[in-house]
Structure formats: structure tokens, C-alpha cells
Amino acid sequence: MSANFDPLPATDVTSTPLIISPPMQRVPLGRAELLGQTLSAPRVTPRILPAPRILVFDSGLGGLTVFREVARARPDARLLYAADDAMFPYGAIEEPRLVARVVALMEQFIAAHRPDLIVVACNTASTLVLPGLRQRFTVPFVGTVPAIKPACAASETRRVSVLGTEATVKREYTQALIRQFASDCRVTLVGSPRLAHYAERELAGDPVDDEALRAEISPCFVDDGARTDTVVLACTHYPLLTERLAQVAPWPVRFLDPAPAIARRVVELVGPRSGGPASAPAPALFTSGRAAPDALAAALKAFGLASGTAESAPESAPAR
Description:
Layout: E1 18-20, H1 29-39, E2 53-58, H2 64-73, E3 78-83, H3 95-113, E4 117-120, H4 123-136, E5 141-142, H5 148-154, E6 159-165, H6 166-170, H7 172-181, E7 186-192, H8 195-203, H9 210-217, E8 230-233, H10 242-248, E9 254-256, H11 259-270, E10 282-286, H12 294-302, E11 305-310
Parallel strand pairs: 2-3, 2-4, 3-10, 4-5, 6-7, 6-8, 8-9, 10-11
Antiparallel strand pairs: 1-7
């Protein structure tokens, strides 16, 4: 799995963005093959499923942006949202512990809810755990990776920034996407230590001020004679803040959300809407067991979720 890849050279990606201009060194053959297992799903025979049961999983609330798009694509699906908020954020957890944690949680969710498909709506979990999940379970998994390919294809200035967590921008899979799809683009990697937390606060009714948001995204905006025109949102939390990010940006850019592409992949695997009625509000499971405050409960309802459901992590899932 990607935990075996060598880390990138130490870089303060928070204060100084890492700028990468191809050509870059190729990934050794063995690693390239292993990386491909993470970045592209294995061949899965598509099925036409009426009212499929689909589990959307994330470390916190960022997966709601993916849940929303999946619900729009398959409103007849029996959806379930699961957040491992007891361990949020995933980027701060050692890789072996995170892998063991997610595998144990998936074993519990699959046994209890029997999903037809699982969406891992988290970049960190996708890149570290997906190969192991696909080997262990027969349920199809759809993962999340930064939308670097469509960003570079759409950029007119050939200046693209990837805004992710500190862990995401350091990982080899992000480098591999750049090598593969950004041959004629100048890509700036920006790791934000706070933006996912700010998104969670926004939904909980405790938004941060504009200056705090501006400080997190300002390294994305490069003007070296050609201005950045596309920012990849490489964390599913960040689209929760898209409108506010656009307001504090120094100039207009395209903020690229991966959620619509994930929803299209889901439809490829379970088929389009079968004509059945829309499902009732989906349950939301939180491993912390904490009840949602009023503001968050209202936000969950706006996403089509029923709030107030708790599901503790199994004993086999390592804690902090």
C-alpha cells in the first residue's frame, strides 16, 4: 500500500508552497504498479441495482459533499453516512494505526448494514487503505483522489494549485498524478493544517473570519506572469467552504470539487436511477457517540440526513 512509499523531502508546505514543474523522475516499476491499485479501481462488473444500499464514509463531515452528489445521482438509493469523528482528522494519525482502524470499522459496517457499495469520501483513507479493503472485502469500493487530471485539462493559464491537507500534498500518489497528467502545467501544492477544521466549524454554526480563510488559501494564488486559474480541492471538507473561499480569493479561479466525478463512478457501478421513489432521510453514524448540536443537526438535515444516530467504534479499531 502507499504506506510503503518513501516520503517526499521535508518541506514546510504550510508557509511555503511546493512548486513542481515537469519533467519529473519516473516511479520505479514496482511502485508504479502498486500505486495503480490505489489510483484506479479494479475492474468491477457494473450492475443495475434498484434502490442499492450505499455507504458513504469519511473521517468527519467532509464526505457530506460527496454524499450530496451521490444522493442527487441516485435519489432512490438507501444511503448511509458514517463519520469516524472520534479520530478526526485522519492526517494526524500514524499510517499503520489508521489502516487498522479503517479496516476494523469497515468490517463492522459491512456486517451491520450489508452495503452494495462503499464510497470512501476521504483522500487520506483512500490512498492508504483502499488496496487493503479491496483485498479483504468483496464489496466494491469507490475512492477519492485529487482531481489533477481534469484541472490540468481545463486550465487555460497552465497554472494549477492543489489545496489539500498536509498529509495529502506530501504523499507519493499526489506526485504520481502530477507526473501523469500535468506535463505542461506548473503545479503548486499547498498543505493546509486548519481548513478541514474550519469547514467542520462552519457546519456547526461557528464560522471563522475571512482573514483566517484567506491565510489558508493565499499560497494557492501564484502570479509569475501567468496567474493560477484552477484550484483543486483535494480534501472533501473544502467544498463545504467554496462560496466563502471564492469571496476571499484575490482573483477569480475555478475551485474543482471531486464529488461529481465520484457520483458518476457510483452510477457506473450500480446503474442509473431505476424509477423508484426517493428514499427517506439517510441515517448518519458518528463513531464518537456524541450528539449533534442544533446547528449541526440542521446542517445534516439540509444534506438529507437524519441526525442523532451514534455508532461506537468496535474494540478492534485502535483508538488514539
